[in-house]
Amino acid sequence: MESLDPSLFPWLLVFIAVAAMLYSSVGHGGASGYLAAMALFGVSASLMKPAALAMNIVVAGLVFTRLWRAGFFNARLFWPFALGSIPLAFLGGAIQLHERAYQYLVAVALLVAAWRLLLASHEPPTREAPHPGVALPVGAGLGFVSGLTGVGGGIFLSPLLLFLRWANMRTTAAVSAAFILINSIAGLAGLITTGANLPRGLPWMMLAAVGGALVGSELAVRRLAPVRLRQLLGVVLVIAAVKMAITA
Question: I need a labelling partner for 90 at 20 to 30 A (CA). Which of 50, 57, 73, 137 fits?
Answer without folding.
Answer: 73
